[in-house]
Task: structure prediction
Amino acid sequence: MAVRKNFSNRADIIQALAATEGATEENLKKFSESKWDAGTGTYYSHGKMFSKMSIFRAKNYFADQAAKYNKIGTSEAIEMAQMFDLAYEAIDAIEHPSVQENTGNKDGK
Result:
């Protein structure tokens, strides 16, 4: 499965990441149960709490892995790098919820 790198809004990023992990339509409906606390930098999701430091470490991990796999250069490695990029972008989108959601169609128009 090829993963798009540029998404029109953060909901697309989150759903694409979930789909790569095998989430079903039913699972995707549960995202509304998540909450970002901008004041503390904490993310709450399905009874789990992710601290600002955990989120920082996760982003660094995904960025490092993407760079590592991009250097390998094989098509499989590049696909893995795109998934790590996607994970990084999904976390970044959660951290910056003030970005306007695109209300257009699936093509972002």
